[in-house]
Design brief:
single chain; mainly alpha; 8 helices; disordered N terminus
Amino acid sequence: MNTTILRKSVLGIAGLAFAGGVFAGPVTEAHATPVMDAKSVAVVQADKPGVDKLMPHGVQGKQSHIDLGDEQTANVKAIIAATKKSGMDERAAVVAIATALQESKLENLGHLGARNDHDSQGLFQQRPSSGWGTVEQITDPEYSTMAFLKGLKQVDGWQDMPLTKAAQTVQVSAYPDHYAQWEKQAADLVAKHWNN
């Protein structure tokens, strides 16, 4: 190879490296990694579950939202506690809360007379005649949540399903797509209350 061409190539590469350094500029204090002294104390706060964990598929369709009262918030916390007790994760809590939002607006409903769907009761509108438990059991937020989650665990691949399909597989509702509208609010509630 011609030494003149080689010299020009080396000088050209060196010039590009120099120009890149000039344009990029030196590393300043603002970009430097801070150094902590031995007396510094780190404060670690539990992270809220991320959107990718709570809503791995995003949301489907238009989202609904209701303001919650004290009883409804207590029921959210009961669903989260039962989910943890069952050994399931935040996504299971999102599915459960969205389901309860659709079924009862997170109110622990007793028998509603003529307005009742057969004998449906509780947060998840479970039916004693369908084997969900006694009236006393299905109107207990912990019991009804554990019963719902037991059904969810039996759904193969529920973690990879859109929320409304997972909920519908457990609930067998006449309106299978209605669960989807509560996913955002359910995820927000889990993010807010999971670490409390």
